Each structure stands twice: as C-alpha cells, then as structure tokens.
Amino acid sequence: MSALFNFQSLLCVILLLICTCAYLRSFFPSIMDRNKTGLLGTFWKCARIGERKSPYVATCCVIMAFSILFLT
C-alpha cells in the first residue's frame, strides 16, 4: 500500500522529511536558505519546522517509533 493512502505511513514520511531537512540544513545552510519559494521551498519550510519545533518533532518521532515497533 502506498504511503499516500495509509495515514500512519504518511505521518512517518512527513516526520522523516522534516528531520532530514533540518539535519541537512545544519550542514548546507546556504543551499536551503536561497531556495525559499517553489518546490525546493518545501524543503526549506520543513527545515524551519524541524528547527523551531524540535521538541515537538522529537516527541512525535518517539511516538511514531513506538507505534511502529509495538502496535503494528
């Protein structure tokens, strides 16, 4: 089943995208900061969410890991 039709998989993909973008922005800030609009702007926005809401994102990652490991 595709991640678009399974809600838990969709949340997992979104969390992975946010975490990956925030991690890559720490290494390559100039690449992320110059692409603030368009399709690549989505990655900049995900990196911003990962940086500013990091305690909430980390909590969501732990909850998602627990649900994938023990409830599925």
Strand fraction band? under 5%
- The number of distinct structural domains comes to 1
Percent in helix: over 70%
- Compute the separation of the termini in Å: 15 Å
Number of strands: 0
Query: How would you sum up the global shape?
Result: globular
What is Rg?
13 Å
Largest sheet composition? none
* Helix/strand order, N-terminal first: HHHH
Discrete helix count: 4
Low-confidence stretches: none
Mean pLDDT: 86
The secondary-structure class comes to: mainly alpha
Describe this structure in words.
One of its GO terms (cellular component) is Golgi membrane. It holds the Pfam family DUF1242. This is Protein kish. Keywords: Golgi apparatus, Membrane, Signal, Transmembrane, Transmembrane helix. This protein is mainly alpha-helical and 72 residues long. The protein has one domain. The chain contains four helices and no strands. The protein has helices at residues 7-27, 29-34, 39-52, 54-71. The radius of gyration is 13 Å and the shape is globular.
Quick description:
The protein is mainly alpha-helical and 72 residues long. The chain is built from four helices and no strands.
